[in-house]
Amino acid sequence: MNHTKGGLVIFSANSHPSSRELSRRISERGFNVLLFLGMKRRLGVELGKVQVYQEANRETRVQIQESVRGKDVFIIQTVSKDVNTTIMEMLIMVYACRTSCARSIIGVLPYFPYSKQCKMRKRGSIVSKLLASMMCKAGLTHLITMDLHQKEIQGFFNIPVDNLRASPFLLQYIQEEIPDYRNAVIVAKSPASAKRAQSFAERLRLGIAVIHGEAQDAESDLVDGRHSPPMVRTTGAIHPSLEIPLLIPKEKPPITVVGDVGGRIAIIVDDIIDDVDSFVAAAETLKERGAYKIFVMATHGILSSDAPRLIEESAIDEVVVTNTIPHELQKLQCPKIKTVDISMILAEAIRRIHNGESMSYLFRNIGMDD
Question: What is the pTM of this model?
Answer without folding.
Answer: 0.85
